[in-house]
Amino acid sequence: MATFYQPDIADGANFLGEEESRHCAKVLRLRPNDTITVVDGKGTYYQSVIQETSPKRCTFSIVRQQHQAAFPYSIHLLIAPTKNLDRTEWMVEKLTEIGVDSIQFVECDYSERRVLKLERLQRKAVSAMKQSGRALLPALVEIHPLTSGQLQLPADSSKFIAHIDENHHQPLSKLATTHTSYVLLVGPEGGFSPREITWATEQNFQMVSLGQYRLRTETAGLVGCQTLHTVNQLYSLGNSS
Ligand code: SAH
Fold first, then answer.
1. Measured at the alpha carbon of residue 201, what is the angle toward residues 193 and 75, in degrees to the nearest 5?
2. pLDDT tens column, 107-139
3. How do strand 59-67 and strand 44-52 relate by DSSP bridges?
4. Could you tell me the distance, in angstroms and rounded to a whole number, from the CA of residue 162 to the centre of ligand 1?
5. Which residues of the chain have pLDDT under 50?
6. Is the dihedral of CA 171, 172, 173, 178 positive or negative?
7. What is the reported pLDDT for 1?
8. Which 8-state DSSP code applies to residue 10?
9. C-beta of 79 in contact with ligand 1 (< 6 A)
10. How far does the centroid of ligand 1 lie from the alpha carbon of residue 67, in Å?
11. Which protein residue has the closest C-alpha to ligand 1 atom 18?
């Protein structure tokens, strides 16, 4: 069934925005009485019936609503955007598919990209959410300097910094406990500066490895988040058997 995005549906917006309306009326050529799913990006699916179609504004009535099951943990990725924007877009798409709560961009001492517009990334996330049958969008947070104190970190979280150096850090899969809120920090192509490592240690980030080989920033973000999902999945499997 065709899925559309309307973030303000809970506030009574029973219509699709311009882009979604054009897709509904012009591309898919849906008609009044056709059934559609509308997701709000906040975790709710609304099974709906189209009332009126027009390329600018399609209206619908809600038949039933259903909530996406929430994970008993949350994942917040702090990551330096890559020099090549396509790589970050790819990562946002993949992370939306596997599910993360937030992606907060950070500017690091060795960053090659210091400015980032969220609009394109947001569009990638919306289409990945619809395509993967999810109703939740990761919150994308504007870029801030890493050590500036402007980051929004959830209280009482387990904080990890993925880092490569001559000390062989313990794998994330080994250090992560289950059912908690995680913050995972991944650096830019040039890695972290010594000053940033000191800052992270003072902020109680634990240094972790994502394996013995050097991953690209966007791969490290994806692997790190999936590792946290896997740690929790293995735990629930262990509990039920
Ligand atoms: N030249 C850099 C490599 C950076 S890779 C350096 O030597 O540090 C980009 C980022 O991905 C790193 O800052 C780190 O956060 C993460 N990363 C990549 N591979 C990793 C691994 N095997 N273990 C831990 N973190 C890794």
1. 95
2. 999 999 999 999 999 999 999 999 999 999 999
3. antiparallel
4. 6
5. none
6. positive
7. 83
8. G
9. no
10. 37
11. 215
Residue 240 confidence (pLDDT)? 64
Among 113, 164, 207, the mutation site with the greatest number of ligand 1 atoms within 8 A of its Cβ is 164
Ligand 1 site-directed mutation target among 215, 216, 218, most atoms within 8 Å of CB:
215
The full length of the chain comes to: 241
Give the span between the Cα atoms of 34 and 1, in whole angstroms.
10
pLDDT of residue 152: 85
For residue 125, which phi and psi values (nearest 5 degrees)?
-65, -40
Show contacts of 171-175: CB within 8 Å, 24+ apart: 171/208, 171/209, 171/210, 171/211, 172/208, 172/209, 172/210, 172/224, 172/227, 172/228, 173/227, 173/230, 173/231, 175/206, 175/208
Instruction: Check residue 26 and give its pLDDT.
Output: 97
Ligand 1 atom with the smallest distance to the CA of 211 is: 22
Domains of the chain, start order: 3-67 (2.40.240.20), 74-240 (3.40.1280.10)
CA distances (Å), 28 to each of 14, 25, 135, in order? 19, 6, 21
Spatial distance between the Cα atoms of 18 and 58, rounded to a whole number of angstroms: 8
